[in-house]
Amino acid sequence: MTHEQFWEIIDEACRADPRKAEEWDERLAVLLAQLSSEAIIAWDQIFDELVAQAYRNDLWAAAYLINGGASDDGFYYFRCWLVGMGREVYESAVADPDSLTSVVSPQWHAEGIDAEAEIYSAAHRAWMQVTGKPDAAEYPVRSKRAELVGEGWDFDDDDLMSMHLPKLSSLYNA
Q1: In this model, does residue 115 exceed pLDDT 70?
Q2: 114 has a pLDDT exceeding 90
Q3: How many Å apart are CA 110 and CA 28, to the nearest integer?
Q4: 46, 23 in Cβ contact below 8 A?
Q5: I need a surface site. Which of 59, 77, 117, 155 has the fewest CB within 10 A?
């Protein structure tokens, strides 16, 4: 499984529609179930790697603004959603979280954009289907916990948020 193949599967399953995250999970599981168990594991390793790479304070701040708060779990789901949005959105957001202004909307603030982005479990379910092994304990993949990267700051401080994320702050704190 290459990164290119990974992103092709994401594009087909998720179609980069930020408001359809609740549909990504099932489509992704169906596509992954067409692969070998080894390919599913390789896909999931890339997924975990990308989610870990996005474990950054600046992205957490973006999630906090966009969703009106972000717990540790909420930020994990946000990062899963970010991967589901596709390579271009993901790479742009990791390089500059303010780039998310091109794909988010303040109207989503009450619900949050990550509520249904449960694509983290699709590979596991597909693997169980392909191997016939129903026991989650046998699943050979789960990455180590990532270390949070970047400078921390008070996400409730509007001035600091504006300094670090001027476009998102302008969009959400207007």
Answers
A1: no
A2: no
A3: 26
A4: no
A5: 155
Residue 22: partners with Cβ closer than 8 Å, 6 or more residues away: 115, 116
Give bridge partners of residue 152 from the DSSP assignment: none
Q: Using alpha carbons only, what angle is made at residue 101 by residues 99 and 104, rounded to the nearest 5 degrees?
A: 125
DSSP 48-84: HHHHHHT-BHHHHHHHHHHHT---HHHHHHHHHHHHH
Work out the number of other CB atoms within 10 angstroms of the CB of residue 46.
19
CA separation for the pair 145, 39 (Å, rounded): 22
Maximum distance among all alpha carbons in the chain?
A: 53
- What token pair was written down for 99? 């780039």
**How large is the average pLDDT for residues 35-53?**
95
Alpha-carbon span 73 to 55, nearest angstrom: 12
Token couple for 102? 């091109």
Pairwise CA distance, residues 145 & 32, whole Å: 24
Q: Which residues pair with 149 in a beta bridge?
A: 56
* Torsions phi, psi for 56 (to 5 deg): -130, 145
Cβ-based neighbour number of residue 52 at 10 Å: 15
